[in-house]
Amino acid sequence: MKAQLYTDLMTTFRSFFRPEFLNRVDDIVIFDPISQTVLRKIVDTQIEQFITLVKKEKDITLSLTDEAKDELGSV
Asked: pTM for the full model?
């Protein structure tokens, strides 16, 4: 699957970029899409850090609903 994706990307790149530029590209890294579960864990971690900071710096208590966290992860 990744070999076909690489081939398709190179075909597209050749139609947009000059050969002089492409000759300078050493490698193309293809990432798999992040799962919704992993994305939610990232949002939870970042929000908890933010909540802790706001509480410490400004003495503000903050809470977010799961829907709000999902919305933050979809931006």
From this structure: 0.61
